[in-house]
Amino acid sequence: MDIFLHYLTLPYLWQGAVIAVQLMVGALFGGIVIGFFLALASMSKHRLISYPVKAYIYLLRGTPVLLQLILLYNVLPQFGIMLSAFASALLALTINETAYCAEIIRGGIISANRDQRTAAQAFGFTRTAEMIHVVIPQALRAIMPTLGNESVGLLKSTSLASVVGVSELTMRSQTIVSENFLFIPVLMASGGIYVILASVLAVGQWWLETRVGLDFRARRARHRKPRPVAELPASAASPTTVDSREKLLEVIDLRVAYHGKEVLKGLSLTVRRGEVVVLLGRSGSGKSTLLKSILALAPVSGGDIRVGGERMGRGPSGAPLPARALPANRAAARIGIVFQNFALFDHLTAEENVMSIPVIVQKDAKPVARAKARRALDQVGLSAFYHSLPHELSGGQQQRVAIARALASNPQLILFDEPTSALDPELVREVHSTIRKLADMGMTLVISTHDVDFARSVADQIVFLQHGVLVEQGPPSIIDNPQTQTFAAYLRQEAAGEIGPEIEPEPTAPKPAAKLIHTER
Ligand SMILES: Nc1ncnc2c1ncn2[C@@H]1O[C@H](COP(=O)(O)OP(=O)(O)OP(=O)(O)O)[C@@H](O)[C@H]1O
């Protein structure tokens, strides 16, 4: 035991351990930084970028790190590059690590919630902002355990550096053994040092995992010191006077196709400022696609969409905007959106969720954005929940945070994509009453829903879609007096609770006759 303890505390071995740790930290750091960019490159739409990166990862993962180490150590001098044994071992381990980290990080990125990413894009986040504020926080939660595992594996792989003459822990224990033949105590002491280092890594991993976890964030949010909140001018809080004749949203002959299949077939619609338009239709009729198109989030193949003076997804000449110009286009249109599944950023409190739009999109100072967020949360009756994380709220409360988030950007138009479909009946009421309040304030709303009674009570204009075609349009009275057989059949089935998804008509079947009744307010 004494001999074991002697070697366990031997400075010569611990100096070797320091070299092993230096190799591990250097390779892990390089692996994570370079791996992040490789992960992005491997997911690129451009094959010229993604394929070589995938091939690089494939080759490095497919060959033993020992082989790579020896190869690099012997190949570099032939190109006149003379590196020390330590530097070439570090380089080889880093290169190998980039492939593994790229795959770990790619896994984290693809695990990020799609709805939250769509929400960020809809509000006008740039790709970089989406990455920093939405994807990376979620990806970190997913990759932390695997990365912790990887760091322990890497620590053990540093022992391979001994083959090129790096005097790290394993090599030093072998050197001692070759002199005194005390295999068992020396190798056990060396193993003990590896276990101590791995334990330190495990504690670090646990600490980091806790910090990116939602429970820790929730606790921290509750105990955080109060942050500065700006005074907002009183005028900003009151609803603006609207000219109800002004056309705010114009959808002109809109066509959208997914993989060659047309799902919106020449749809035209006008929404005036202050108007509430409700979209009805069976599942699959194209309601969500219409809302996504308004935000330039759907593959529009024809037609035009204007919100205020802004052409969505197109430049002034009518040419489609490149992807990098879309965030500014969406931000300029000032459209808020509320999704069926809330799509709140789950690592942010209610207040942070709402203020993310003024901070990230409108570049407001944080105290101003916080004041706007609190005003919006007060408007939807959530003054007591500023510091709650989404998972601490009921579905109805989460949806009201989502409504506050849509309000915080001072939108000229708010889109609701089946805002109550994911809610229990008693929670539906609270969300409906919040939407009604917005309508009473004179906000312009476009709401997709299956709730005919709610549509009747809130709408200025009802729009019925079928197979991507606007079949009937008119005041709420058309619900009691439908003008087309298809709408009448839909209403009958809806009342009987027999509504099913759309069944595509045969390709030869004629389009449903469109009967339009236009309403002026
Ligand atoms: N990303 C997509 N890729 C391929 N097809 C899609 C995509 N999104 C929607 N579609 C198709 O477009 C059609 C219209 O879908 P959409 O979601 O707009 O209908 P909806 O009326 O909103 O339905 P629901 O009431 O169920 O939300 C459907 O046939 C759907 O399968």
TrEMBL record:
Residues 17-205 form the ABC transmembrane type-1 domain. Residues 249-492 form the ABC transporter domain. It is found in: Cell inner membrane; Cell membrane. InterPro entries: AA_ABC_transptr_permease_3TM, AAA+_ATPase, ABC_transporter-like_ATP-bd, ABC_transporter-like_CS, MetI-like, MetI-like_sf, MetN_ABC_transporter-like, P-loop_NTPase. The chain crosses the membrane at residues 12-43, 55-73, 181-208. The keyword Cytoplasm does not apply. PANTHER family: AMINO ACID IMPORT ATP-BINDING PROTEIN, L-CYSTINE IMPORT ATP-BINDING PROTEIN TCYN. This is Amino acid ABC transporter permease/ATP-binding protein. It comes from Ectorhizobium quercum.
